[in-house]
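Predict the 3D structure for this chain.
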Amino acid sequence: MEEVDKILIHALKQVGTELSEDIDSVKSFTSELIVEAVVRCIRVIDPGLGSALPTTLPPGMSARFRVGMSLAQACQDIGYKGEIGYQTFLYSSETEIRSLLMFLVEKLPRESAEASDQPTGKSAILQRAIASAIKAQLVAPWLPSNCRLPLHGETQMSGALHNFHSQHLSLPYGVKDPAKKPQKEVKDYQRDFLRPVTAQLSHNASLAASILEQHTTELTAAQEWDNEWNSQGLLSRLTPQDYRARKRTRLRKRIEEQLRSAALPSAESAFGALGSTSDLSDILQAFKGATSSDHILTKGSHFTHSQKFTFTQEVETVVSAVRQVDVDNHQSQQEELASLQQQLQQLCIDVDQLTTELKHTSVTNAQVLDETKQREQHNSEKEEKIQVKKKTIDLLPDAENNLLKLQGLVEASAKRVVNLASQWEKHRAPLIDEHRRLKEICSNQDMESSRKLSEIKVLHDKIRVSTEEAKKKEEMYKQLVSELENLPKDVSRAAYTQRILEIVSNIKKQKEEITKILSDTKELQKEINSLTGKLDRTFAVTDELVFKDAKKDESVRKSYKYLAALHENCSQLIQTIEDTGTILREIRDLEEQIETENSNKTVANLERILEDYKAIRQENSALAAKVREG
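Done. Predicted structure below.
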């Protein structure tokens, strides 16, 4: 049992149960520790069922009974078939707890058991530390700067926070095109002139964001390429380079078509350009009016002011004349624009009429051409009929000879047709066979190609799964190596091996002894059966012989009575021996039950039950007093 208990304790530590180093067997488990271990195992087996169960026992006895009942129901829900109840957790028995923990440990999923191992490698420790720090920061509530305590000052300082601003990085490696090898000039540039990543950024605060953005971009591109190649690339039956080149060519053609369509001027823009000239004069007039305003203040000398005062009337007359000319020009331009618009509308109407007439003419022309073709075909058919009739009329004077000649020609034509048909059959049969053979080859090739394509997809999936398994096994190997390095060096493996071999040899000896005892028991049972049968047969023969002689002789009659009494006494003696054996077996069973009950701490459990009963009565009386007071 010591080995079983060690295995159970190791498994319970893996699922997160806090066990001290002093506990080395299930016998040392307390009720609180049993509840915690069972709840941890249930949470790993069924998280939805175990999330509602507490890992500690409450102080009140009634609440403890409810927790014990809920734990028992949860164990039954996950498939435990043994006897279980609240007494299993509150008044624990070593055998019951051991069987329950063995069941729960066997129900633990292998993946979660492997995941629950705490790796000790450097990368695993770093990842675990990062995850714990992030979880702690996520759990802590955010507070304004004026409400923060010194405890939150380290994690919620404003100086440690930066906006997520990423910049483009130039890296000497990447996953954009792994099949394409870099050129020599690129390698030289990357070796001699490419600056480090930290020197390529304008702000050091954006380093982490830029690296994360670059890595995410490359990883997304690689995943998209894998998905596209597995879904479309394999179906194209091209190499990855040819598939990329074809995709690049199609993209270039689409860009050229878009640019070509965008570069073509539309008719609406041309008409809009013509219409926009009508507003040009208004715009110029507005600018002209704005510049010729009389309210603009200017600076000048006394001579300038006197000159301006002298020639004010002349300037006003000139300005009025210019304005009159501008008004006249504007009216003439408006009239000319109106006439041009009328002419344009008239031209558009004429163009529409001509277009409709042209369509009507083209339809009429097409109909006329169709009628002409039909009439030409009709005429050619009539000409052929006329030629046949003409030849027939020419042959009428010598009808008999001509009929004979026609019959000969018909027969010769029939023979020729038959000959040609036989020759065609000779050529047709191998051609049909060849066609069928080629068709069958094509179908076989299509089936073979589809089969190979499906095999390639399956191989790709297997490669992906194998790669993931290889990564997991490599991580597991590193973890195991690190655990091996951290294990104490003074423990020899030979001692454990020798111990295992001793346990196996003891189990073999016990099996041999059990087999020997079973064989001896079977032989004894056979011997008892044979002796019982022999005794019954001997008594029957003796009884028959003595009974015959007892009819004739009185002394033999007494011997017969003694023989019957002896047989009855022997039967009673045998029955007594069998009853004695049965009683001895029952005594041994009762002794084993007594030992089991003693190991179950029945007396101690009864005392605890009485104490708990008293505590529950006290709680009930206290609650009743509170109710009466309320």
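The CA atoms of residues 144 and 156 lie 9 Å apart.
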